[in-house]
Write a structure and sequence with these properties.
Radius of gyration: 15 Å
Number of strands: 0
Strand content: under 5%
Helix content: over 70%
Oligomer: single chain
Distance between the termini: 57 Å
Structural class: mainly alpha
Largest sheet: none
Shape: flat
Order of helices and strands: HHH
Number of domains: 1
Number of helices: 3
């Protein structure tokens, strides 16, 4: 294991666990923040793992994840917003 692999493990253990805890508890806004934090941490972790594998073709997955995470946030905020009758 190289330093990039250790960085990926540290990101998963140190940052993803609190994001998932925040996403599992609290109000709907707190859960949305936890979901966004988990998406950001997952993206950075995948970028670090691509660097660890020395494969630039693996960078496609985190870039797609960024777009899907942003689109998912827009959908969830639309669903959580006030509804007009």
């Amino acid at each position: 294991m190289n330093a990039w692999s250790w960085a990926a493990v540290a990101l998963l253990a140190g940052a993803l666990a609190p994001a998932l805890m925040l996403g599992a508890r609290g109000s709907s806004i707190d859960r949305l923040v936890g979901l966004e934090l988990a998406g950001s941490v997952a993206t950075v972790t995948l970028l670090v793992m691509a660097q660890a594998a020395s494969q630039s073709s693996y960078l496609v997955v985190p870039l797609v994840l960024v777009l899907l995470s942003f689109a998912g946030t827009l959908v969830f905020t639309r669903l959580l917003g006030p509804r007009s009758s």
